[in-house]
Write a structure and sequence with these properties.
about 200 residues, mainly alpha, globular, transmembrane helix, membrane, transmembrane
Length: about 200
């Protein structure tokens, strides 16, 4: 089997895996809906499970990889996984006061505010961030893409702390841990590529 055939087979398997996980997401969502659950409260309760906070590199790294290889469906699939991972994990039995306070601040800022400007700004900011990120990898410029990830994450921390103050501090550790994983992965790839050249 040639390298090209191997890549095509792996790409197909990845799409099937994405489809299966999205089917799982739809199943648990539908089960909660038909059981009569308050869907807003159900999603919000599960969002408090920090596994969904720390799992982001699992989606961003392969999405960036497939942007580099210019595979639109794979990028869209991993972004769909990132969105639905919000409610994959059961609501935790106990929630730390820092996490609870941060989420309440977030809920008030984006959903219970008198103005929709913060929510619009959030959606626009995320959209611009993802477009710049994937454009960088699409143009085969991974270092530019890595710079965007770092800048975007640092900006998120600054905004959270500046506007959320003590509550916003809860965003620091998950954001920096994601950044650490992504940068270590980039460093590993750079070392491997440099060794191959040598």
């Amino acid at each position: 089997m040639s390298d090209k055939d191997g890549h095509q087979t792996l790409d197909l398997l990845v799409l099937w895996l994405i489809g299966l996980i999205l089917l799982y997401s739809a199943t648990i969502f539908a089960a909660a809906y038909f059981s009569g659950a308050d869907m807003g409260a159900w999603v919000w309760g599960r969002h408090q499970n920090q596994f969904s906070w720390y799992s982001r590199p699992l989606f961003m790294i392969p999405a960036a990889y497939y942007a580099y290889r210019r595979k639109v469906w794979h990028i869209a699939g991993f972004m769909a996984l990132l969105a639905t991972s919000l409610f994959w994990f059961d609501a935790p039995a106990t929630v730390s006061t820092h996490v609870s306070a941060y989420l309440e601040w977030e809920k008030h800022l984006f959903f219970a505010n008198d103005t929709k400007l913060p929510l619009v700004a959030l959606i626009f900011g995320v959209f611009v961030f993802l477009m710049l990120l994937f454009y960088a990898f699409w143009q085969r410029n991974p270092w530019y893409g890595l710079a965007i990830i770092n800048a975007g994450t640092v900006l998120k921390i600054i905004v959270s702390v500046a506007f959320g103050q003590d509550e916003g501090m809860a965003a620091i550790v998950p954001s920096l841990s994601s950044l650490l994983v992504i940068n270590l992965f980039a460093w590993f790839l750079w070392q491997r590529k440099r060794n191959d050249r040598n």
